[in-house]
């Protein structure tokens, strides 16, 4: 890439100097979790060594410093996703907890016979929480079909709306196919039917700019650990009027106004949904990760990843028996494939012997595997620190493994 000095970027990631079985590590499992640069880890260290005190409680200086850092990250997130207010930015443990929060609390407002629309390409974390509502009442999932190219059928989507549709939950970017769903259009369709929408942005936020106001989504969920940030932190963006309507998710400290044994009032947003001591060290460090992404420039990151994806796709397609799942042009930086009848597990194991870390199996999207009639897939996914040289070595390794069968 002309815009980014990849060598300089790589120097910020000590893990990239590791050898696996004598081979240079080539880390291509970024869609599962990205690596973490020094600036983020240094923020974690600084928090532990110099600013560790519980937040929102103490009058003392250190507690105030920790609180300021958490609230500074909240403002950074608000600004980065263009939310209207920090009241609409709730810290969670990750995308999964963010979705469970909405499914659980919005689910309280659903009745027998209500319907929720999801797509056939959802991650389990955007399927199972909605099914759990069904343990308490008869709420039914309606599923948007996915084409052979890996795209949602929008006509079929619109046809799924009935008088009983109460909610839509869909991925912005598929973690398997890389498909970028036309979420703005899909949200507009849902809103025409008076139905709110949650977007699972876990795979979008690391690779594209997201503007929640422009999308007009009602909820947007994502995870820090896929965005060069620390583990244990996620965000739920929610429109204030929905968050005010929904009951609290968990009870405990931080989320209350006044507590007696007879009656408890709840804190204002966003604290109403943040019971207990938050992961304030990692929240603070997530702020450093957002600064890092902004410094590199999301357009530059995306352009670099796109170049890697194009090259990898071109080279993989030269291998006999290669089958790539998800062929949308302009898709996200993931490439899922199978070669002949080599199992994803065997391919992954042999690539690992060559120092290459890829994902294998069902990718937490078993219904999508069923859709394509496969047990699993091999997935390579890119981040800003990957190089064209790594792509060449990866595709050569796939070719070599394919030749062994
Ligand atoms: N949705 C998608 C599309 C994902 O790729 C992931 C992460 N694999 C999740 C949700 C869940 O994210 P987390 O495990 O960070 O909660």
Automatic annotation (TrEMBL):
Transmembrane segments: none
Reactions the enzyme catalyzes: (sulfur carrier)-H + L-cysteine = (sulfur carrier)-SH + L-alanine
A family per Pfam: Aminotran_5
Record CDD domains: SufS_like
A GO biological-process term: cysteine metabolic process
Top-level enzyme category: transferase
Protein name: Cysteine desulfurase
């Amino acid at each position: 890439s002309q815009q980014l000095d990849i060598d300089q970027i790589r120097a910020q990631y000590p893990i990239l100097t590791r050898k696996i079985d004598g081979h240079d590590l080539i880390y291509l499992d970024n869609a599962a979790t990205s690596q973490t640069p020094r600036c983020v880890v240094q923020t974690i260290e600084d928090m532990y060594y110099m600013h560790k005190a519980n937040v929102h409680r103490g009058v003392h200086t250190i507690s105030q410093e920790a609180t300021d850092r958490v609230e500074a990250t909240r403002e950074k997130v608000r600004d980065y996703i263009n939310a209207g207010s920090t009241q609409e930015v709730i810290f969670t443990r990750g995308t999964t907890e963010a979705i469970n929060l909405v499914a659980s609390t919005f689910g309280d407002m659903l009745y027998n016979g209500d319907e929720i629309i999801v797509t056939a390409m959802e991650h389990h974390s955007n399927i199972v929480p909605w099914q759990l509502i069904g343990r308490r009442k008869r709420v039914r999932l309606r599923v948007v079909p996915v084409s052979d190219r890996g795209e949602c059928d929008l006509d079929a989507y619109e046809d799924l709306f009935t008088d009983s549709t109460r909610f839509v939950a869909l991925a912005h970017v598929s973690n398997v196919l890389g498909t970028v769903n036309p979420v703005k259009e899909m949200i507009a369709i849902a809103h025409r039917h008076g139905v709110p929408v949650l977007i699972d942005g876990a795979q979008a936020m690391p690779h594209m700019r997201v503007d929640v106001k422009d999308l007009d989504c009602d909820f947007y969920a994502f995870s820090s650990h896929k965005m060069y940030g620390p583990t244990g932190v996620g965000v739920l963006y929610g429109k204030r009027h929905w968050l005010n309507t929904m009951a609290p998710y968990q009870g405990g400290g931080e989320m209350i106004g006044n507590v007696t044994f007879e009656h408890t009032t709840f804190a204002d947003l966003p604290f109403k949904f943040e019971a207990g001591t938050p992961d304030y060290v990692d929240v603070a460090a997530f702020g450093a990760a957002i600064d890092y992404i902004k410094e590199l420039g999301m357009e530059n990151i995306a352009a670099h990843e796109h170049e890697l994806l194009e090259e990898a796709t071109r080279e993989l397609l030269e291998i006999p028996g290669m089958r790539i799942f998800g062929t949308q042009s302009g898709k996200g930086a993931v490439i899922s494939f199978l070669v002949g009848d080599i199992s994803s597990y065997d391919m992954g194991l042999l690539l690992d012997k060559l120092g290459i870390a890829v994902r294998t199996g069902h990718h937490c999207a078993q219904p999508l595997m069923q859709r394509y009639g496969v047990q699993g897939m091999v997935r390579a996914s890119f981040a800003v620190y990957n190089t064209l040289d790594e792509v060449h070595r990866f595709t050569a390794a796939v070719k070599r493994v394919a030749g062994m069968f």
